[in-house]
Amino acid sequence: MFPRLLIAASFLYIVSSQRCSTPADTKNTFGQYLQCIKEGLDQNYQTYEDELREHSKRAALSCFSSTIEEGNQKDRCVLNANDLNQVAWDRHGPLRDCTICRTGDSHPQASLSRRVSAREACGTVEDGFASGAIKAIKATPAEDQKCIRMEISRAIAKEASYCLQKKIPGFAGVPDIPDLEEGSFQFKDSVISSLSDHILIQSRLSFCAERKPNRAASTKHCMNNPFVGYLGEHCKILSSCDQKMSAGNCAQVIPQTRNGVCECINEARDDLKKRIASIAGVFQDLVSGSIGLAAGTTSKVDTCVAHIKKQMVTPVNDWVTVIDGALSTCIRKKPAGQNLGLEAMLNVGCRKVIADTSGSASAQLKTGFDFVNNLIDAMAQRSSRFCGGAACFQG
């Protein structure tokens, strides 16, 4: 008798706690839904991490063409398995033409004329901001990484809430998003490999889009649903949590809420990518003289940084402040002699463009900020696992 009463009480608790009759109830229940997904991931994180990495790579090889000839026939961008065997931040990756990013030198000949060390001869680049960013990810303790993810998640939730309030009158807001990546620290080498793949894939898509926009669009569309069984283990978690939320009107409201939140998160991701991409335009305007600068190096740098920071402000977030605030708050043991943060990068970039007389610094910095853009996007993509993919909800 006692087990039956316990089961009945548990069922009544679940039903009563999953009311979706008011916006506040829906917000609370959606928070439970996200926690359900986190618990599912935590039970066997390695399985889901392996699937995310392997399926992302397989998706790219399914949607891109492996040769130029095949790309012309199928109207797809070109990328093959050998391309994905590279590391995104080594000297042969997307940063190969950006000496500033890899070594800090603004002129390629400056680095070529230096004496090459044994370390470089083995294929390891000097610490530019790209390789430095990856080393920082590897070296940051688990607690600090969790803190950073939570700070960024709050900012993303604010973007999604603002978006949904415009679409759904009376929307109560997105609840705190649980740390879906909490188990990742034990598998950081796998995570780094996954980040590298994402950067390589997105860099190739961008390269393709500049030359063949329609071809890039069709390739990107394919990546949303690349093959049967895509992220199948993730889909099982989503299906299980959908079923647990099936009491009363939550059966319809929670999936609708998830879809709306995910749509808004994707819009926020695209908007942030565009804002970071616009940084290159400021550097170009500096070179062309379109931006009026006051006399004096300091004033020029300040004006340059101010123009860029203005473009990073949305109605609910100042992304430079969000990112730098997270790094400042969460990283307890700062690397000696290093200025962490986006504003520090902007200062360095503006100084190099202003001091450069060859015109190469602007082009190189575009490459560098494209890399940072794809790195941030890779981490944002991982944190939105509860959105699943189109294949999860077919049939």
Radius of gyration computed on alpha carbons = 23 Å
| Portion in strands | under 5%
Sequence of secondary-structure elements: HHHHHHHHHHHHHHHHHHH
**What is the count of β-strands?**
0
Helix content: 55-70%
When the domains are counted, the total is 1
Q: Helix segment count?
A: 19
Which structural class is indicated by helix and strand composition?
mainly alpha
Inertia-based shape = globular
Biggest β-sheet strands, sense, barrel: none
In whole angstroms, how far apart are the ends? 40 Å
The residue-averaged pLDDT reads: 81
Low-confidence stretches: 1-17, 105-127
Question: How are the SSEs placed, and which strands pair?
Answer:
Layout: H1 2-17, H2 23-43, H3 45-63, H4 68-74, H5 81-84, H6 99-103, H7 108-112, H8 118-121, H9 129-139, H10 142-167, H11 188-211, H12 213-224, H13 232-244, H14 250-277, H15 279-288, H16 297-310, H17 319-330, H18 342-355, H19 360-382
